[in-house]
Specification:
Helices cover about 35% and strands about 20% of the residues. The protein has a nine-stranded mixed β-sheet with strand order 7-8-6-9-10-11-12-13-14, with helices on one face. Strands 15-16-20-17-18-19 form a six-stranded mixed β-sheet, with helices on both faces. The chain has a five-stranded parallel β-sheet with strand order 3-2-1-4-5. With about 475 residues, it is α/β, with parallel strands linked by helices.
Length: about 475
């Protein structure tokens, strides 16, 4: 958002301080939309929810029960353009004709994160990144909740707005996507985390990686020197952006390769975290989560915990007993000495890179879905070393077949999860892994990555 827009929008948002009283239009009747509608109504707004698709029955019932006006399978433009403020679901792109119309009418468009943050005085930890943000957010909350009153929201679980209304935790850990950050104005987390930045969702950013990087850095745009930015110092995209676009925040980098004075680094098998000369040491040998990427996730989460004065012993114990996230390198079952692993949340190449890197046995790899302009080159080394067969699961597998066809003896395509798992069962031998790590979005064959992961787990259990 350009600076002049920000000024104009902030003026129009001045009613936010307490009870609203304006006309709030919510575009999208999903988790964040319905949460915003409930909070908006409680704060005195006249609320209208509009969804171009079909609103799920459970959300319809909530809207009806709370006497909130709604429509689905259409947008009544004349009604929407009367809004004082519009909360847009993160799934709706800025390029949508209706959003362009709303902006043309100089009506502020904000995200749920922006709206809900106006109604809480909680300490906010905001976590973004291309990969690892769900694991890092869940792990951070897992550590903090041992000593603090803390909610987990954003891109995960119950909506932030709903939690502000019903629970009003003293602290929040928010997993925040670039789409949510695109529509903030004043939102400012006390602690921001950027796990990493690799090309993703470029179709939403005019296929310009720089635009996507800038979007991620919006998490720190309103921070001051009293706030903190924790980030991966090994990530070239982050390091370059920071060099050319300095932020106001106090910087706390983490690294696997460099020695960090203020922040976190790896010294042999220990994570060393130093903040204002106060140091803690965490052995990595007992981490519940495996893989180099999870050492980084642990560094980020532990740095947050250290900042918020969580006891060292509590941090150590929490890192050791954390169970991990569903659909992220989730070990499903071992059948005939073959381990089946659900990594459905790997919706881009970089996430699959981490999955393949962590494989320690010959692997039958299930890949495919809606390609977001993927470049698979960084996977070649692992495919050559570790992958014995590839099962392409998607409507259009032509690019995958062409890219990997000469690398493995066995490459098969299917459009059914049950068939993909049966094929994998036939190919895999004792000691092998069967890995679902799609590197693609799920929308060609599935409702979302959760649906894809659940179908995989069900198919494995039905073998």
């Amino acid at each position: 958002m350009k600076k002049e827009n920000k000024k104009q929008s902030s003026e129009q948002l001045s009613s936010f301080g307490g009870v609203g009283g304006g006309f709030l239009v919510v575009l999208g009747g999903g988790e964040s939309g319905v949460g915003t509608a409930l909070l908006g109504k409680a704060k005195g707004y006249n609320v209208f929810v509009s969804d171009k698709g079909k609103i799920k029955e459970k959300y319809k019932q909530v809207l009806i029960h709370n006497a909130i006006e709604w429509e689905d399978e259409k947008h009544s433009e004349s009604e929407i353009l009367k809004a004082d403020i519009v909360m847009k679901s993160p799934g709706i792109p800025d390029k949508a004709p209706l959003v362009k119309q709303i902006r043309k009418h100089k009506i502020p468009v904000i995200s749920e994160i922006e709206f809900a943050s106006k109604f809480t005085k909680a300490t906010i930890v905001g976590i973004t990144g291309s990969n690892g943000k769900t694991t890092t957010a869940t792990l951070t909350q897992h550590i903090l909740k041992q000593q603090l009153n803390v909610g987990l929201a954003g891109n995960i679980g119950d909506s932030f707005a709903k939690q502000v209304l019903e629970d009003d935790f003293k602290n929040y850990v928010l997993e925040i996507s670039s789409f949510q950050l695109d529509d903030i104005i004043d939102f400012k987390p006390k602690i921001a985390v950027i796990t990493n930045i690799t090309p993703d969702h470029l179709d939403r950013y005019d296929y310009q990686f720089e635009n996507y990087i800038a979007s991620k850095f919006r998490i720190a745009i309103n921070q001051t020197k009293d706030d903190y930015l924790i980030y991966d110092a090994d990530d070239k995209a982050i390091a370059n952006h920071l060099k050319n676009n300095p932020v106001q925040s106090t910087l706390l980098p983490f690294s696997l390769t460099k020695t960090i004075e203020n922040g976190a680094y790896l010294d042999q098998q220990n994570i060393i975290i130093t903040i204002d000369n106060n140091q803690i040491i965490m052995p990595t040998t007992k981490l519940a989560l495996e893989g180099k990427h999870n050492i980084k996730n642990a560094m980020a989460a532990s740095t947050v915990a250290h900042l918020l004065k969580i006891r060292k012993q509590t941090i150590r114990e929490s890192l050791e007993n954390f169970q991990g996230v569903e659909h992220r390198l989730e070990q499903v079952l071992k059948i005939n000495k073959v381990q089946y692993i659900n990594d459905s949340k790997a919706t881009n190449v970089n996430a699959t890179y981490y999955a393949l890197e962590s494989m320690d046995a010959p692997t039958v790899w299930i890949v495919g879905g809606t390609d977001k302009g993927n470049n698979y080159e960084e996977l070649f080394q692992f495919v050559n070393e570790k992958v014995k067969a590839i099962i392409c699961l998607g409507v259009d597998n032509e690019k995958l077949m062409r890219t990997f066809g000469n690398m493995v003896d066995n490459i098969i395509e299917t459009q059914f999860m049950s068939e993909a798992v049966k094929i994998a069962y036939k190919i895999a031998e004792a000691g092998d892994n069967v890995l679902l790590s799609p590197a693609c979005a799920s929308f060609d064959l599935f409702e979302n990555y959760e649906d894809r992961g659940r179908q995989f787990k069900n198919a494995v259990r039905n073998l």
